[in-house]
Amino acid sequence: MTEIIKDLYQFTEVMEPIKLSMHQYLLMTNEPVLIQTGAVSQAQTTIPKLQELLGERKIKYILISHFESDECGGLALVLKEHPEAVAVCSETTARQLMGFGITNNVLIKKPNEIFAGDDFEFQTISYPSEMHMWEGLLFFEKKRGIF
Predict the structure, then answer these.
(1) What gap in Å lies between CA 44 and CA 36, rounded to an integer?
(2) What is the C-alpha separation between 120 and 97, in angstroms, rounded?
(3) CA trace torsion 66, 50, 60, 79 (10° rounding)
(4) Where in this chain does the record put each ODP domain (predicted)?
(5) pLDDT digit string, tens, across residues 64-81
(6) Domain extents for the chain?
């Protein structure tokens, strides 16, 4: 894990054999925010590192840009460790999560909405994603100017 800027940590795993690097991020605010869970293998690697950073704290929110395994494939594993965490995503992604039995603690955001906590403020931005061009959400953190 790498601290990119104050309170923002990046977790990276290179997926073989194509050597594609995948990233997840933790914004260590009063209400810790995980950006993407990664696929199952990434979540398995990331969870112990998250625990190291978080100590006794728990993840409050998990931001999911769109429904693909490299964005949220490890969601069930992360929720096992952080059952009170709220998945924040588009309506399209929420519908897909329901198909995997993830129906509790899902917050649906629409494009151009603000999602704010104690010390963060994300603006949602719509973009076409995935092979079906379903609506995805980008999360731009306005206080820090990231993502």
Answers:
(1) 13
(2) 25
(3) 70
(4) 21-111
(5) 887 777 777 788 999 999
(6) 2-141
Tally Cβ neighbours within 10 Å of residue 131: 6
What's the length of the chain? 147
Structure-token match 């092979």, residue found: 131
126 three-class SS: strand
Q: What are the distances in angstroms from CA 61 to CA 57, 86, 132? A: 12, 5, 26
Here the tokens at position 32 are 């810790």
Structure tokens at 33: 């925010």
86, β-bridge pairs: 61
| pTM for this model (two decimals) | 0.90
Q: Which CATH number fits domain 2-141: 3.40.640.10, 3.50.50.60, 3.40.50.1240, 3.60.15.10?
A: 3.60.15.10
